[in-house]
Amino acid sequence: MTLLQLQFLLVPLLTSRMGAAQYVMQDAALMNYIDRRLQSVEKRLEKCNQDILDYVEEFRDFSKMVLSRLAGQNSCKAEVKSEVENLLIRIERAQRDIDYFGSARDAKACIELHEDLVRQQQFEEAEQKKKLKLMLNASCDHMLAGIKSLKIVKKMGDKDGSWMKDPGKKHTKIYVLNGSVNNVIWEFANIMMFTESSNALRARRVTLPFPWEGTGHVVYQGFLFYHRHGSLNEIIKFNIQRRNTTDRMLLPGAGRVPAYQLSPSTKIDLAIDEQGLWAIHAEPESGGNLVITKINHGTMAVEHTWDTSCNSKDAEAAFMVCTTLYVVYNIPSGGTSRVRCVYDVLDAVSAYELPDLHFPKRQGGHSTIHYNPKEKQLFAWGNGSQIIYKLHMQQK
């Protein structure tokens, strides 16, 4: 009886204890589930926060890119505007030339030669010469009387090339353009830096937007003028300091044949004298005789053209001194270079007045010869050597 009562007492007790344990296990499972859910939420929040940081960084990069492109567009807009303005100027210039040639052609078609007309033409030619003298500053009255001496400054680069100073500026920089086709200018601070440097590490490298052709380039008033490679007769005006193309022009009649038989890579030879920028080239229609053109270096417009009596056969180079063209001849194997033909656009110099002008103490040809009116010297390039010739002048 007592045992039976004890069983009745133990059963509720055990049942209550088992129920409590079950509740405890359920609570633990619930807490474990809640903990896992919280950890999952925390991970998602952490990932969301990281995504927001990544989005912010991408937005910053995108903003920088947009601002950079906007700045580039403003720069391109200014360049396009400048190019359009230059294009309009060239179109106007071309239209004037077309109108002029059209009127000249129409006038020639209607000409009836008679004495009065001949006198009128002679009068107009005389007036034209007066205008040319005014345009070319007739006070330029000296002529080349002799080539006194030479100095080989350095030997570097290819067989063909060109080197020069800027006669229109007050600096002493040396510019070297190596080869007959290239797009890199080397700028040295002065001639001492050029002669002492064993390589181009001490020079400023300037890369052109278009390569040059030949060796007939010049530097004047801070600009490089050169014949663009791959074009028939396009002359580029390049600002060396700003490193951009300022203007360009087409030289009528040029580019079909070499200017000099012994320098076949040069179709257009540009030159500088006391009067500014000139172009020298040959035309098949003239039987190979050289043609010289006065160019306004500021507007890149043709001012006047002259057909000379100097032939390109056996010629290796030419240069201008005080409105007079001096053509240098040689033999194909490279003998003594001599000036054998001159042409003064103002008819103030006669070939009979000139002494025998030869280049002293040197055998071999030149790929280019350029006159520097500021220093009254010739800067020449011969078989990879950079040469200076000192000149003797006399009154015309």
UniProtKB/TrEMBL annotation:
<dbReference type="InterPro" id="IPR050605">
    <property type="entry name" value="Olfactomedin-like_domain"/>
</dbReference>
<feature type="disulfide bond">
    <location>
        <begin position="140"/>
        <end position="322"/>
    </location>
</feature>
<keyword id="KW-0732">Signal</keyword>
<feature type="coiled-coil region">
    <location>
        <begin position="38"/>
        <end position="97"/>
    </location>
</feature>
<dbReference type="GO" id="GO:0005615">
    <property type="term" value="C:extracellular space"/>
</dbReference>
<feature type="signal peptide">
    <location>
        <begin position="1"/>
        <end position="21"/>
    </location>
</feature>
<keyword id="KW-1015">Disulfide bond</keyword>
<keyword id="KW-0175">Coiled coil</keyword>
<protein>
    <submittedName>
        <fullName>OLFL1 protein</fullName>
    </submittedName>
</protein>
<dbReference type="Pfam" id="PF02191">
    <property type="entry name" value="OLF"/>
</dbReference>
<feature type="domain" description="Olfactomedin-like">
    <location>
        <begin position="139"/>
        <end position="395"/>
    </location>
</feature>
<keyword id="KW-0964">Secreted</keyword>
<dbReference type="InterPro" id="IPR003112">
    <property type="entry name" value="Olfac-like_dom"/>
</dbReference>
<dbReference type="GO" id="GO:0007165">
    <property type="term" value="P:signal transduction"/>
</dbReference>
